[in-house]
Design brief:
- The protein is α+β, with helices and mostly antiparallel strands.
- The protein contains 15 helices and 20 strands.
- Strand 12 and strand 13 form a beta hairpin.
- Helix 4 packs antiparallel against helix 5 and helix 7 crosses helix 8.
- The chain starts with a strand and ends in a 6-residue tail after the last helix.
Length: 452
């Protein structure tokens, strides 16, 4: 087992990793920008190293500085968390070239799944169903028109190197196609320095279902059930729950077994999430995230497993100590992402937290690095915390979530708490009857006139 791990991230996920390491008896090193000098993960780690000024490109994305911090402190391994360098294959290669363990998949698998076209082709060959679409990138408007005519409208145009909804546009008719293509290419070029796009059939009311996997270096792959991440705004998840209210037991077993078989063939290592669109009983692969997910706590809640602990163990060469039959799913869990944003306009709201009270009680968890007097900097993601609630069934979970949201206080900044206080009382949410476009429609209909 590692004796010292460097955490190459910030915020709540850095604190989450620090906690797992401490419980395993592993010393920790926090890296931070000058803007994060007083951050909670810096305060609680055994050592800390400043790696640059506030801009992420000069700090949390600064590979030489992170490697130097490892060498200075004698850290044996790097945990990248999520975001930043977590899915950067070259970073994983550099880490290993310096004799440091990378707590994540192999660079080859990160690179494969980071290319949306290559990933789709790979999983299709492994027996995972995919959304109908182009065989690869579309190079011209004429080719795109031919593919769209074959699939039928509407169609979805996606950046091959995309993520977070950038470089993604819908064309609902032939007259929309040219503008959608040029806009998607421009966004992809700006965001990823790669304007290559491909096309998929646009599903009308799908659910976003993802399967959590865990694999060791001895050939064992386990799935930890599914999560439903269908409540999204601009392709950004806001609410996640497990298990999905849309699946039955047979569908749950089918997709879990399909993913497990595929990743065994691939020789995957570490944690990962295979994401699908689900509509009319069919699953369609959209992407695989080769890292820890923001929403991993809902899976921990229904399985009782510490996913970060297992991730560290398998990265150190340890074998998974359970079988698939040992994974027991208990109750229901929901996570709400509490962002430092206006709940109606979603404008970021950095600033000083003037008062803070976390909810408590049975089945309530609040993962956050904020505290009274903490100043949320304007340079990074707006995620301020994650409220995770577990109950014996979905109804109990929803009632506990309602109570916990009313108990949660984050003062001095705008947050998305009021939005969730409304959502947890909506009939469609209470009935589990929603899809990936539901929240966008709800927000458009319910936004105050002054905010439109």
């Amino acid at each position: 087992m590692f004796e010292k791990v460097l955490i190459a991230n910030r915020g709540e996920i850095a604190l989450r990793i620090n906690r797992a390491c401490k419980e395993m008896g592993i010393a920790t090193v926090a890296v931070h920008s000058t803007a994060d000098a007083s951050a909670m993960h810096v305060r609680l780690a055994d050592e800390s190293v400043c790696i640059g000024p506030p801009p992420a490109a000069q700090s949390y994305l600064n590979i030489p500085q992170i490697i130097a911090a490892c060498e200075i402190t004698g850290a044996e391994a790097i945990h990248p968390g999520y975001g930043f360098l977590s899915e950067n294959a070259r970073f994983a290669e550099i880490v290993r070239e310096h004799g440091i363990a990378f707590i994540g998949p192999t660079p080859e698998h990160i690179r494969l799944m980071g290319d949306k076209i290559a990933a789709k082709q790979a999983v299709k060959s492994l027996g995972i169903p995919t959304v109908p679409g182009s065989d690869g990138a579309v190079s011209s408007d004429a080719e795109a028109a031919r593919v769209a005519d074959e699939m039928g409208y509407p169609v979805l145009i996606k950046a091959t190197a995309g993520g977070g909804g950038r470089g993604m546009k819908v064309a609902r008719s032939p007259s929309d196609l040219s503008l959608a293509l040029s806009t998607a290419r421009s966004e992809a070029k700006a965001a990823f320095a790669n304007d290559e796009v491909y096309m998929e059939k646009y599903l009308q009311r799908p659910r976003h279902i993802e399967v959590q996997v865990l694999a060791d270096s001895h050939g064992k792959v386990l799935h930890l059930g599914e999560r439903d991440c269908s409540l999204q705004r601009r392709h950004q998840k806001l609410w996640e729950e497990a298990p999905s209210p849309a699946l039955n037991a047979a569908q749950r077993q089918e997709i879990g077994a399909t993913v497990t078989r595929a990743l065994e063939k691939l020789g995957y290592l570490g944690v990962g999430t295979v994401e699908f669109l689900f509509e009319d009983g069919g699953f369609y692969f959209i992407e695989m995230n080769t890292r820890l997910q923001v929403e991993h706590p809902v899976t921990e809640a229904i399985t009782g497993l510490d996913i970060v602990r297992e991730q560290i163990r398998v990265a150190a060469g340890g074998a998974l100590e359970m079988e698939q039959s040992d994974i027991v799913f208990s109750g229901h869990a929901i996570e709400c992402r509490i962002n430092a944003e206006n709940p109606f306009t979603f404008r970021p709201s950095p600033g000083t937290i003037t008062h803070f009270h976390a909810p408590g009680g049975l089945g309530v968890r609040f993962d956050s690095a904020i505290y009274d007097g903490y100043k949320i900097p304007p340079y990074y993601d707006s995620l301020a915390g994650k409220l995770i609630v577990h109950g014996r069934n979905r109804n109990e979970c929803l009632m506990r979530l309602r109570r916990s949201l009313d108990e949660l206080v984050v003062g001095g900044i705008d947050t998305t708490i009021p939005l969730f206080q409304k959502l947890v009382r909506e009939p469609d949410i209470l009935n589990g009857d929603y899809h990936i476009h539901w929240l966008e429609h709800y927000l458009a209909a319910s936004r105050p006139t002054s905010a439109k």
